[in-house]
Design a protein that fits this description.
Elements (H helix, E strand, L loop, with lengths): L5 H15 L6 H20 L3 H20 L3 H38 L17 H16 L9 H9 L1 H4 L7 H8 L7 H34 L6 H32 L17 H7 L2 H12 L9 H19 L3 H19 L19 H22 L3 H13 L12 H16 L14 H18 L13
Helix pairs in contact: 1-2, 2-6, 3-4, 3-5, 3-6, 4-5, 6-8, 9-10, 9-17, 9-18, 10-15, 10-16, 12-13, 13-14, 14-15
Length: 478
């Protein structure tokens, strides 16, 4: 089931009503209801993958119980290895099997052989890369003593399968989210209302701005060799906004939905396109994933503690792995490595910049220095999105080449770019004014009548300009 479809819009109020009917019951009954709702939500797509979801949760729950009882280091390592093998094995088989087969075949062809190796027909389960990472936080943290193993299998299954986060995050840590499942939730009207506001803005970003931009982006990338430089730059700008509106829109809907059910979720986006350097961007974009890689990959490798050479190597490894996590194609690896390379000048500086806080916090406009920093960072990130969007390395290089050789060619006309560009700029402008807020529709200080005018205006925009069901969320493919 996907957020921008009619089945979800029917499912959500029914789930909300059923869940809060148990508001006076023991929290285990609430958890059991959550598990049932989440299995229906996931099974709506393809019920055949329900055993995979439940199996991942069962293995890690049992590993956690084993770790709680085990004292010998060797046994504990064996148990953790079992958890990692189960999660990474499932991820490797479903997501990377064909990638490794095709890469091996390409390598053989480079040395003059002609292998006859066919790809397997493997369906990638939705949300696999998200719920496996989420589940691994539990076993790793129990192993490291950061949290105690839960004795409640229903609470753990509810954590892994929690339907607002199931398909595309945020990637919650077990040590932060499980405690919320081990106590009864009380309905808070203010939190629920704020969740609805966040959901509303998330839907606007996805089904209006991102989906409108997607049509223009598809047209530009399909015929990039015929387009002129301004059109190619506009197409790349629109993809940057499409990707942001699509994924941050999903995160807003997910976090807002979780609030309807009484849960606090980690923040996943913090206005990343207003960042002043690449390091700040990656602290503001897909926060839950990048903090996962930082905690469970970067620092175990040594982080920045073993000299700048090792710091650079660890950064490149993390971004290469992050790229491969996003997609089983060399374009994603190239995208990850390019972003890793962006970090090298920052690391080599005598005092690496640590930019925190809101840009132009107490001012309407940024300083000239801040504006140039944001523009430069945005251009670097936008350039890397070519590899993220391209279907092949050849297309990525072809697009970049056309950007610098097709100047003044004339293209295919600019009419279809007009409204997507206007909508994209409007989105960025609104978020600039709200950049100090945790989410854009936190407008409770405005007069009540004005707030409701804004809500109804956004609902009208959704009705008349939204696209439903035909464009899935981009990150669901990962």
């Amino acid at each position: 089931m996907v957020f921008n479809t009619l089945p979800f819009l029917l499912f959500l109020p029914a789930a909300f009503a059923l869940y809060w009917l148990l508001r006076r019951a023991h929290y285990r009954w609430q958890n059991l209801m959550l598990v049932g709702l989440s299995l229906v939500f996931y099974g709506w797509w393809d019920w055949r993958f329900l055993p995979l979801l439940v199996g991942v949760a069962l293995v890690d729950y049992l590993v956690g119980r084993g770790l709680a009882a085990a004292e010998k280091p060797g046994r504990r390592k064996l148990l953790l290895g079992l958890s990692l093998a189960a999660n990474l094995g499932a991820l490797g088989f479903f997501k990377y099997c064909n990638f490794f087969i095709d890469s091996f075949a390409s390598l053989l062809r480079l040395v003059g052989l002609q292998p006859h190796i066919g790809s397997l027909e493997i369906i990638l389960p939705l949300g696999l890369a998200f719920f496996t990472l989420r589940s691994m936080t539990y076993t790793i943290d129990v192993y490291k003593g950061r949290m105690k193993a839960t004795r409640d299998p229903i609470a753990y299954l509810a954590f892994v399968s929690f339907f607002p986060h199931l398909l595309a995050g945020p990637i919650e840590r077990a040590r932060y989210f499980l405690p919320q499942l081990e106590q009864r939730r009380e309905f808070d009207p203010d939190h629920a209302a704020d969740g609805l506001r966040q959901m509303l803005w998330g839907f606007v970003k996805k089904v209006v701005v991102a989906d409108m931009a997607a049509q223009a982006v598809n047209a530009v990338f399909l015929s990039y060799h015929l387009q002129d430089t301004p059109t190619l730059i506009a197409g790349l700008f629109l993809f940057a906004v499409q990707l942001y509106g699509d994924f941050s829109g999903y995160s807003d809907i997910a976090v807002g939905t979780a609030r309807l059910f009484g849960f606090k979720s980690v923040r996943n986006f913090a206005y990343p396109y207003f960042s002043r350097n690449v390091a700040e961007f990656w602290r503001r974009w897909h926060i839950s994933l990048m903090s996962w890689f930082r905690e469970y990959v970067f620092y175990p490798l040594g982080g920045p503690m073993k000299g700048k050479g090792r710091w650079i190597l660890n950064t490149l490894v993390v971004f290469a792995v992050s790229g491969l996590w996003h997609g089983s194609d060399w374009t994603f690896v190239a995208w990850g490595l390019l972003n890793g390379l962006y970090f090298i000048p920052l690391i080599l500086r005598k005092n690496p910049p640590i930019t925190k806080g809101t840009v132009a916090k107490d001012r309407l406009f940024p300083s000239l220095k801040e504006a140039l920093q944001m523009l430069g960072t945005f251009l670097l990130i936008m350039l890397s999105w070519v590899f993220f969007r391209a279907e092949t390395m050849a297309q990525a290089w072809g697009y970049l080449k056309a950007m610098v050789t097709n100047f003044g060619f004339g293209g295919l006309g600019y009419g279809y770019l007009k409204w997507p560009v206007i909508a994209s700029l409007a989105l960025l402008l609104v978020e600039w004014f709200q950049r100090k807020r945790r989410h854009t529709l936190r407008i409770t200080k405005l007069p009540r009548w004005l707030r409701w005018i804004i809500y109804y205006a956004l609902i009208a925009i959704l009705i008349f300009f939204g696209t439903y069901g035909s464009t899935e969320f981009i990150y669901m493919q990962f």
